[in-house]
Design brief:
There is one protein chain. With about 80 residues, this protein is mostly helical. It has a single domain, classed as Fumarate reductase/succinate dehydrogenase, transmembrane subunit (3 helical TM bundles of succinate and fumarate reductases, Up-down Bundle), CATH 1.20.1300.10. It is built from three helices and no strands. Helix 2 runs antiparallel to helix 3. The longest helix has 28 residues. It is elongated and about 60 Å long.
């Protein structure tokens, strides 16, 4: 990668590699879920929805929002 042509060759090789894309998607998926779950915990720290019903609802919202973000990450990576 000592020249622009070398950088282009490496980036094109990685852009067309299934394993590299799969690993990038997996890392982005983990980051998205961790981010959404962190927001859920911040809401709990602020005493928002601390009841049993609120906890179930926030868990469901966390899964749905994470799934949407994971799908979007997959579309962006592939």
């Amino acid at each position: 990668m000592s020249s622009p042509a070398g950088f282009d060759a490496v980036s094109n090789a990685l852009a067309n590699n299934f394993l590299a894309k799969f690993i990038a998607w997996g890392l982005l998926s983990a980051l998205a879920f961790h981010f959404v779950a962190g927001i859920k915990h911040l809401l709990m720290d602020a005493d928002i929805g601390v009841t049993l019903e609120g906890g179930v609802k926030k868990a469901q919202i966390t899964v749905v929002v994470s799934a949407v973000l994971i799908i979007l990450a997959g579309v962006w990576v592939w």
